[in-house]
Design brief:
The chain has eleven helices and eight strands. The protein is of the alpha/beta class. The chain folds into two domains: 229 residues, Phosphoenolpyruvate-binding domains (TIM Barrel), CATH 3.20.20.60; 28 residues. It has an eight-stranded parallel barrel with strand order 1-2-3-4-5-6-7-8, surrounded by seven helices. Helix 2 links the parallel strand 1 and strand 2. The chain binds 3-methyl-2-oxobutanoic acid. 3-methyl-2-oxobutanoic acid binds next to loops.
Length: 277
């Protein structure tokens, strides 16, 4: 039996492309995006029918245990992207340009994006920011590399924000965000992540641009949704913003399974004769 969760998606068996996503927006079919950092998870997400797999720099938090996304390096992200690409047959694979690999230097930005395309085989990159990264975004796009934008709460700027609270609640920041969304669309981005902004603003952005918006903590009116897979599966339990819905408690499953294993080892109940050679 198929595990496809979105049989309404056009050509569900075929590879998802940036064009598929724009068609999905036109047809009003919500886009499902999730993060992955390794082969096994990527394979599971892909076979479950997710449209976009994001090799997020949240790997810095959930894989490496850092407090922020800032420490992860380009080489480390390339390694994660290579693992994910090997596990995906259908979904579009997008990778985060990590902090320090694109800001303030469009030549460096292009070189980083090219490494991801050549060494990992991803289908595009994601970059945080609007006006300030315009030249980097344009240079990458000019090389034929698809770019996904990311506005609102952009975790690579956490030390400038000083807080992980909801962004663009005031009029000035909301107007700037709307302008940045238009600028990224005009520059040629194929899609835009909106993180932790008021649902009403996200709805305005989504109706004001033609490219699909993908929300995280940005309400229902975005053209798609994204979550960090570890949050959705209940592998991370100390991160509890209201936008996270836990579809499973794998922390409990894992701890219980490991405890049973330890008990069996201690009691010489594992392995049995059938499990031996
Ligand atoms: O790094 C990440 O996981 C992300 C998503 C939360 C959008 O950027």
């Amino acid at each position: 039996m198929s595990t496809q969760v979105n049989p309404a998606v056009p050509d569900a068996a075929k590879r998802v492309t940036t064009l598929t996503l724009s068609e999905m927006k036109e047809r009003g079919i919500p886009i499902a995006m999730l993060t992955a950092y390794d082969y096994t998870s990527a394979r599971l997400l892909d076979s479950a029918g997710v449209d976009v797999v994001l090799v997020g720099d949240s790997a810095s938090n959930v894989m490496a245990g850092h407090e922020t996304t800032l420490p992860i390096t380009l080489d480390q992200m390339i390694y994660h992207a290579q693992c994910v690409v090997r596990g995906v047959e259908r979904a579009l694979v997008i990778v985060d340009l990590p902090f320090g690999s694109y800001q303030g230097n469009s030549k460096k930005a292009l070189a980083s994006a090219i490494r991801f395309m050549k060494e990992a085989g991803v289908h595009g990159v994601k970059a945080e920011g609007g006006q300030v990264i315009k030249s980097a975004v344009k240079r990458i796009l000019d090389a034929g590399i698809p770019v996904m934008g990311h506005l609102g709460l952009t975790p690579q700027s956490i030390y400038r924000f000083g807080t992980y609270q909801v962004r663009a609640k005031d009029e000035v920041e909301a107007k700037r965000l709307l302008a940045d969304a238009a600028l990224l669309e005009e520059a040629g981005c194929f899609s835009l992540v909106l993180e932790k902004i008021p649902a009403e603003l996200a709805a305005d952005v989504s109706s004001s641009i033609k490219i699909p918006t993908i929300g995280i903590g940005a309400g229902l009116e975005c053209d798609g949704q994204v979550l960090v897979t570890h949050d959705l599966l209940g592998l991370t339990t100390d991160f509890n913003p209201r936008f996270v819905r836990r579809y499973a408690r794998l922390d409990e499953v894992i701890k219980e399974s490991v405890a049973r294993y330890i008990k069996d080892v201690r009691n010489r109940k594992f392995p049995t004769e059938d499990e031996s050679y």
